[in-house]
Amino acid sequence: MALKSIIQEAVGTDATQVDGYQVPGGNVSTVVGWFISNRINTAPIVVSAWVKRGARILYVVRNANLLVGGGVDINPGKIVLVAGDQLFVASSVAASLDTMISFSEDLV
Question: Which residues of 12-35 are buried (b: 16+ CB within 10 A; e: fewer)?
Fold first, then answer.
């Protein structure tokens, strides 16, 4: 088991794959923390975060409000990802969202 983390800074209104991460073939990953924050100090933002598995999308959080300077761990449990899964975020305001995801990655 290897513990890892990935980050993405200043995410805006386009769907953004977090750090370009995709679970490698022959592996599973377990997300143990997914933190998102509002990096701007002028307005609240509305954020979404999701897992993409092929053509399917599972929202971890959708259209959630984050106050000025606010942040939240949107993953209070664990999310098990399989090979090929990707993690995405988006915000309602340009360059307003930071995210950090902590996970373990294991060979199957």
Answer: eeeebebbebebeeebbbebbebb
pLDDT tens digits, one per residue of 24-61: 999 999 999 999 999 999 999 999 999 999 999 999 99
pTM of the model: 0.95
CATH of the domain at 93: 2.60.120.1330
Q: How many domains, the chain?
A: 1
Query: Strand 16-22 and strand 71-73: pairing?
Result: unpaired
Tell me the C-alpha distance between 41 and 64, whole Å: 17
